[in-house]
Amino acid sequence: MKKLFFIAIALVFSFSGIGQTKAAVSFKGEIANRNTDSISILNKNNRKEIKKILVGKDGFFKDSFAVEEGFYMLFDGKEYTELFLKNGYDLNLTMDAQKFDESIVYSGKGALENNFLAQNTITEQKYDYDALLASNEEVFMKLVKEKKAADFLKLDNQKLDPVFVSLQKKSIEMAMDSGTEYYMEGLETKKLNGVMSPSFDYDNYNGGKTKLEEFKGKYVYIDVWATWCGPCIGEIPSLKKVEEKYHDKNIAFVSISIDKLKDIEKWKSMVKGKELGGVQLFSDNDWNSQFVKDFHITGIPRFILIDPNGKIVKADAARPSSPGLEAELDALLK
């Protein structure tokens, strides 16, 4: 997941809004092994649908629509890819939906910019962000500087639309700045390792309240999550398997929801419907809960591992889906 972190950050920041005088974008293409009978062009900022285009059974589609010059997303019902569109483009796409990114090729007017984006996605997926985020501060800053320079150089070496270049450079800068902020927050989080954990006293799904101190003498693996968080829900099957494997070991599994108070019934319903195990707690003030703030939690899911004496083993522990988690727990619980 961390490998895609900077990619995700880059998708959050987009720049559009330069009006066009020509009528529309012409967009056509052929999609092999299509996922659905349509594709959607989405606003890159809020993912609202700008245009829905029907795809025939033979995989062919064709449409035209007016846009503001800038970045958009194409969604095929399963995956996303980034587009740069401006009125006057006559763009043709060929793609195999089963291979997706690796198969995307554009031709026609606007192909240069969009092929650049398609290839850049593949390049970013291969970049070792895990190593970057695991490096010390000096090395991290050096690598970020080098990556930014290399990314800018690729743009300078192409005969690309100048507006595209300008917007892409701004996107790179904001991605790097946000990634650096994330890294620095991580350094602060690591400083918590080895110190006594902040406590909590939260409502328990089964009734009453539960404090961290009640688990003294056991390791505690904490999952901070919310019902609206897709990645959190995606970890549930793996968490259940981990809970099952260690159910008779000296470890407690505690899940803390940071849903808003108005959604407490939704939380209860999900706990029951998904048959969530472990100890299910509801925080007292969502993101502003003191426990959440003390652990510098700005994104979820977040997993925390605490030892039997109440000291933090890892303030940002491995996820249940991570192969490294069971190896770590095996070593601690042997």
UniProtKB/TrEMBL annotation:
PROSITE patterns: THIOREDOXIN_2 (PS51352). InterPro entries: Redoxin, Thioredoxin-like_sf, Thioredoxin_domain, Thioredoxin_ResA/DsbE_sf. It comes from Flavobacterium frigoris. GO terms for cellular component: cell envelope. One of its GO terms (molecular function) is isomerase activity. Residues 1-23 form the signal peptide. This is Thiol-disulfide isomerase or thioredoxin. GO terms for biological process: cytochrome complex assembly. Residues 191-334 form the Thioredoxin domain. Keywords: Cytochrome c-type biogenesis, Disulfide bond, Isomerase, Redox-active center, Signal. It is found in: Cell envelope. Its main location: other.
